[in-house]
Amino acid sequence: MRAMADTVVARCVEHITTLPQQPLYGVCDAESLCRSMREPSPAVGTPLESLLDDLFSTYIPQSFNTPSPGYLAYIPGGGLFPAALADFIADTTNRYTGIWQAAPALVQLEANALEWLREWMHFPAGTRGVFTTGGSMATFNAVLCAREQYLGADIRPGVIYTSDQVHHCVIKSAKLAGIMPDRVRCIPADAQFHLPMGALRDAIAKDRRDGLVPFMVVSNAGTTNTGAVDPLDEIADLCVSELLWHHVDGAYGAFFQLCDDTRDVLRGLDRADSLTLDPHKGMFMPYGTGALLVRDGARLRAAHEATAGYLPEMPSPDDFYDPSQHGPDLSRGFPGLRMWLTIKLYGADAFRAAIDEKRALAVDAARRIALLPHVVLDAPPELSLFPFHLTWPGATLAQEDAATREVMANTSKRGRVMISGASAGGRYVGRVCVLSFRTHARQIDDLVEDLGHAIRDVVGSMA
Predict the structure, then answer these.
(1) Do the Cβ atoms of 72 and 418 come closer than 8 Å?
(2) Over residues 132-155, mean pLDDT
(3) What pLDDT was estimated at residue 315?
(4) pLDDT at position 76, please?
């Protein structure tokens, strides 16, 4: 076992230390490779070294290099090494954490980590949470809680409201909870990609007149497309007056609540009834680390509480946290250990400093990119993500979209940074997202230089 572990760790450390030299976009002829990989189950084993050769030399390189310091596309995933060690410990000790009685001290560690998230988000005592595989499952659980509180058994008339910039998991989560797509109102965003309050009020009033039952608003604390933060405080006021559940999708942006510079942008986040968090984004954890906080913890428990004759008697809900009573899983891994170990190892101040740095880098990048020729900044970085597009005298929208797409691709092909785009506000926009703990000033310098070269090449051939 020690020899196997030493071999694997050596490969992993080599992989991590060479991340800056590895291709950012390694996918090439993926269809042929995947077809060639199909095989029946092996009758005999293969030496570990050979399997690791295939993994690290062929399979892993055929992917987006998301932990690279130059990865500024989509929303980066960090993958802190101590979190991997925590998973190794969790998998080798293999303790069952689905119910409190089976591993009470380990479940308490997870409860501690959730309590730290509650404190950082300034949610009140009495909040409960659950770790999930990501933002999608967190959002599903939030919709379930809102449905149970406001609709009961008659769910067909229920209506959810959000903006057209919301993450697509909201519609999927609503459908899983029995709220069909025709009962999800995706209201067109304003010019700055925010959920407009007037249109939201009008939509709620119209549905009430039509005999429907508005019950939930999903707002954004940092959209995936443009990084926009909805007017959370105003939405909270509206939800109080209209008796609606207010869920904030903070998968990307909620951890900026730790920073003085962005706390005002997120004003009202702490008033939400529920909040989606993705520690695999803002806390640099491995993929598969999501979380949900629910202000009234009894609502989360009520949505999931269940027992059976083969299970031990539940502990007092006021005294101890039981994962199976706050989420859909009975059999589960131990996701809380990666959070607990990493936060204990580094301390909250280290995370706060890292997020502060990403914010400063994004502001610097936006300022410098806005000075490049032909660039229009569609919105400033409210957190650490911002959109832009290209234009020139006489350019049509189709030409601007084509040029922006080509510049994004050409910049990424230069190999030092990877950026991505999105459709927003009726056009194609380029986007830069700074959120990897490995990204520093050097990568922003590379971004601005390579983007400038790509703009000159592309616009010069089109204008």
Answers:
(1) yes
(2) 96
(3) 64
(4) 87
E-strand spans in 253-306?
274-277, 290-294
Q: Fill in the DSSP letter of residue 266.
A: T
Say how far apart CA 114 and CA 112 lie, in whole Å.
5
- Residue 313 to residues 96, 109, 308, 322, 378, Cα–Cα distance (Å): 16, 21, 9, 11, 56
- Short-list 234, 238, 197, 194, CA closest to 216: 238
Q: Please give the structure tokens belonging to residue 411.
A: 């910049």
41-62 pLDDT tens trace:
999 999 999 999 999 999 999 9
Rounded CA-CA distance 220/138 in Å is 14
Quick count: other Cβ atoms within 10 Å of Cβ 462?
15
Residue 36 tokens, joined: 């060639």
Residue 107, helix vs strand vs coil: helix
Q: Which residue has the tokens 């610097």?
A: 364
Which pLDDT score is estimated for 316?
58
Dihedral sign for Cα atoms in the order 139, 144, 147, 150: negative
Q: Residue 168 has which token pair? A: 């697509």
For 221-260, what is each residue's pLDDT tens digit? 999 999 999 999 999 999 999 999 999 999 999 999 999 9
Helix (H) / strand (E) element for 455: namely: helix 441-462
Please give the mean pLDDT across all residues of the chain. Answer: 95
DSSP H/E element including 409? helix 397-413
Residue 174 near residue 162 (C-beta atoms within 8 A): no
The per-residue pLDDT for range 153-207, each reduced to its tens digit, is 999 999 999 999 999 999 999 999 999 999 999 999 999 999 999 999 999 999 9
What architecture is the 349-462 domain classified under in CATH?
A: Alpha-Beta Complex (3.90)
Beta strands in 241-345 (DSSP E): 245-250, 274-277, 290-294
Asked if 438 contacts 76 with a C-beta cutoff of 8 angstroms, the reply is: no
* Number of other residues whose CB lies within 10 A of the CB of residue 243: 10
